[in-house]
Design goal:
Blueprint (H helix, E strand, L loop, with lengths): L13 E2 L2 E6 L8 E6 L3 E2 L5 E4 L10 E3 L3 E4 L1
Parallel strand pairs: 3-6
Antiparallel strand pairs: 1-4, 2-3, 5-7
């Protein structure tokens, strides 16, 4: 299954999560697939919570976005 864990996490320093976003906010209302990435979630620091504030109206393709990351 895509996105599942494979029991190799113990050998990793961080998770590299991403968000796959589908939207039709463009001028021509075509559906776009966008990836928003960063920062990585450091393993062992607690649960990761991301806050994303971004105008997606004309967002297309792969976009790297530095989200606000907070740990529990």
């Amino acid at each position: 299954m895509f996105g599942s864990q494979h029991a190799d996490e113990i050998f990793s320093d961080a998770y590299n999560p991403y968000m796959r976003l589908y939207h039709d906010c463009t001028e021509y209302q075509t559906e776009e697939e966008v990836y928003l990435i960063l920062p990585v979630c450091i393993i062992g620091k607690g649960r990761c919570h991301y806050s994303i504030r971004k105008d997606i109206k004309e967002l297309t393709g792969t976009s790297t976005y530095n989200a606000d990351l907070k740990y529990d």
